[in-house]
Amino acid sequence: MNARDRRREIGHLLHEKPVNVDEMAAVFSVSASTIRRDLDAMTRSGDIVRTYGGARTIGGPERSLQERESIAVGQKAAIGKLASSFVDDGAVAVLDAGTTVGALARNLAHREGVTVVTNGLTTTTVLEHSAGVELIVVGGRLRHISSGFVGPFAERVMADVSADVAFLSADGVSAEHGLCEETPEQASLKRVMVERAQELYVLADATKLGVTSAHWWTRLERPWSLVTDDTATEEQLAPFHASGMVTVYVAPTSTAHAQH
């Protein structure tokens, strides 16, 4: 198989699911360095965007919540554990929809005296039997693919909240532009969350850093914190460190210590 045909097949493969470099090398019986050269060429041509250890397609179908639950599982667990340390006793915390924020919710399940306001069914399910957590669920139109409520009703309810802290998710995170999402309704609700919280934390594993392939944006125009995992490269983190607006926290997935 020549390089052009292989790259076409790589594109088809990435449309189906995320695949890392070693897996692609095994599929096509070539070296990892050959796959990396293919991915570099496909990135330059605008067909894909590189992620840590692999790549993802641009403009492909949005992944369902169930699919995202199988991606970066250990990294999301580490991010959720670290993020829970930023929820003080007695705090009112807004938790966005999404699997990474759902990992945070699991670390709050046994807390006492915390109020959680969420539009996400993942967080709702995790906390529904947590007697020590005051759980407020923001309704609206349910996006089945992401198990999150959006729309004018959700925005009106969220506008009445005064939160100590908000934990946001996103399809992609840019130091320059903020958070990108698949729909304007998601981005619009996040803007209300940003307005109604004193402190902002964005929870994003390394595969989302620098990704700008979705079309709708929530700009972050005041100081905020990024909580990511230790598979993030220095190249990925550099724009956030340089922005002057972002505090970066790196969650250890092994025995490493969190970095600021």
Task: Give an overview in words.
The chain has 260 residues and is an alpha/beta fold. It folds into two domains: 3-61, Arc Repressor Mutant, subunit A (Orthogonal Bundle), CATH 1.10.10.10; 67-251, 3-Layer(aba) Sandwich (Rossmann fold), CATH 3.40.50.1360. It is built from ten helices and 15 strands. It has a seven-stranded parallel sheet, sandwiched between helices. Strands 1-3-2 form a three-stranded antiparallel sheet. Helix 2 (21-28) crosses helix 3, helix 5 crosses helix 6 and helix 6 packs parallel to helix 7. The N and C termini lie far apart (46 Å). Mean pLDDT is 87; it is low at 255-260.
Element pattern in H and E? HEHHEEHHEHEHEEEHEEEHEEEHE
Query: Strand sequence of the main sheet, in spatial order?
Result: 6-5-4-9-12-14-15
Largest sheet: 7 strands, parallel
The percent range for helix content is 25-40%
What tags apply to this protein structure?
15 strands, disordered C terminus, about 25% strand, alpha/beta, seven-stranded parallel sheet, Arc Repressor Mutant, subunit A, elongated
Structure, briefly:
The chain is α/β, with parallel strands linked by helices. 38% of the residues lie in helices and 25% in strands.
